[in-house]
Write a structure and sequence with these properties.
It is a single chain. The protein is 76% helix and 0% strand. By secondary structure, the chain is mainly alpha-helical. It has one domain.
């Protein structure tokens, strides 16, 4: 958990969030609306790009279905909101926290970079991700506010976990596992983009379990492949 790359990534998001909060105070509502749309469009583009890396569409579908049902049952998005800011928190705070958490964790750089950092001591991927996340958090915090700042905790916990258990998780770097994970993460990002553009309100946080279900279903698929 004390890996330098994980700490750097978390700090980058904290610094970016503070810069975004300072800049956001000077933005008009119309300017913030433009930022919302820009982030939404980029998120959709990233989602489509990641989805196209999938290996097995049935694994992706099954992961989203099972993970989504599990997340809905556990009310994960609501629980995340409570954890991040209490019972009566501003909806924008919760949306900022969930949006930033999905953007910073759902991609393959999280898994590959964290495993390489833990097993090989190679922090290059996470350092690059830190720069990208830091820059993204500026725009996100300017749009959503302080909820984005809390995503640094998500990064620290998730990436810290993967680094700590990287020796046992090396199989996730295999193309077949990484491809399906990317496909699932891509569709979650696509759903997030749809939500940001206000096309439809989707509880994206409830799909988080799909990222865990994906490698399980991929493994089952290899047994019958």
């Amino acid at each position: 958990m004390l890996n330098i790359s994980v700490i750097v990534n978390s700090i980058a998001v904290i610094i970016g969030s503070f810069l975004g909060l300072l800049g956001g105070k000077k933005l008009s509502e119309s300017s913030k609306d433009i930022l919302f749309k820009a982030i939404g469009l980029l998120t959709i583009g990233l989602g489509i790009s990641l989805f196209l890396e999938y290996n097995n569409a049935l694994v992706v579908l099954g992961s989203l279905a099972i993970g989504g049902l599990l997340g809905e049952y556990l009310k994960i998005e609501r629980q995340l909101g409570k954890l991040a800011g209490g019972e009566n928190q501003d909806p924008d705070f919760v949306k900022g926290f969930v949006t930033a958490t999905v953007l910073f964790i759902a991609g393959p750089m999280t898994i590959v970079g964290s495993i390489k950092a833990g097993v090989q001591g190679n922090n290059e991927i996470i350092f690059l991700k830190s720069l990208m996340d830091g820059l993204s958090s500026i725009m996100l915090a300017a749009s959503f506010g302080s909820g984005v700042l809390m995503s640094a905790v998500s990064i620290y916990l998730v990436q810290g976990f993967i680094v700590s258990f990287s020796g046992s998780l090396q199989f996730l770097q295999n193309e077949i596992y990484l491809g399906d994970f990317s496909g699932v993460g891509g569709l979650i990002l696509l759903a997030l983009g749809i939500r940001l553009l206000k096309i439809k309100e989707i509880k994206v946080g409830n799909f988080f379990p799909a990222l865990i279900i994906s490698p399980i279903l991929t493994y089952i698929g290899t047994l019958f492949g």
